[in-house]
Give the backbone structure.
Amino acid sequence: MKIEVKKSWLSALILLALAAAAIVYLAGQFLSMREVEPIYPGPGVTEIKMLSDWYPGLEGTAGDTEVYVLEGEQEGDSMLVLGGTHPNEPSGLVAAVLLIENAQPEAGTLYVIPRTNNSAFTCTDPQEGAPMRFTIDTPNGERWFRFGSRATNPIHQWPDPEIYVHASSGQRLSGSETRNINRSYPGRTDGTFTEEMSYGVTQLIEQEGIDITVDEEDKLHISIRVDVYYGYVLPDLAANIRQAISDAVTSQVGIPVGSVDVYIDGMQFAR
């Protein structure tokens, strides 16, 4: 009987040791998603800021993220490129990194956010069997990048509602879309964590007067401000401006236009 007891204790100790080893290994894998891939700012980068510089509510959270500023020597318009909206679609991150490391604007200012949903880079989608990172061979050696999730890490925002109602439009979506930053604009300060992140991006756009943004579907989103003469039907005028700009950009540049926001800054009266 004593021998059996000793064997039982020995088996239990072995199982505990194996369980502890598994926990340590898995914890290491989990924490490795928080290791940030290196980005090497090129000569065009004039400043590196944080999204919390435009919305302080993100400071110190997993939603705060780097904003690379590339300012040309001449005055001009401003443009924002968003990478990492969906970290499981890595082309957006890689394209943003290429701009940060190589672009040199001659005029105007280019803002680049490589990790728009910074939280979503710290996890992968469950039951998808996705890798945690991938590598690219370059002339300067191998580069690695994280392969994250489509949505905000549930550690940072939980639980999901059964139905997600988009705050500004009232559109009803699947509950998990509440953590999809691409479904949360323009965001709000008293909403979900994801809505706060998108609010930070919106504040950057508004405070810096950014005219053009590019999303991960390679569509342009353009803002234009106009003064109009009294007497025009404003909704019709805005619709005509949207169509004219969309047609011109698509035909001349060859890039599809996702949206054109027309802002009426003032009204003039004929003398």
About this structure: The helical segments are 2-32, 91-102, 193-208, 234-253. The chain has a mean pLDDT of 87.
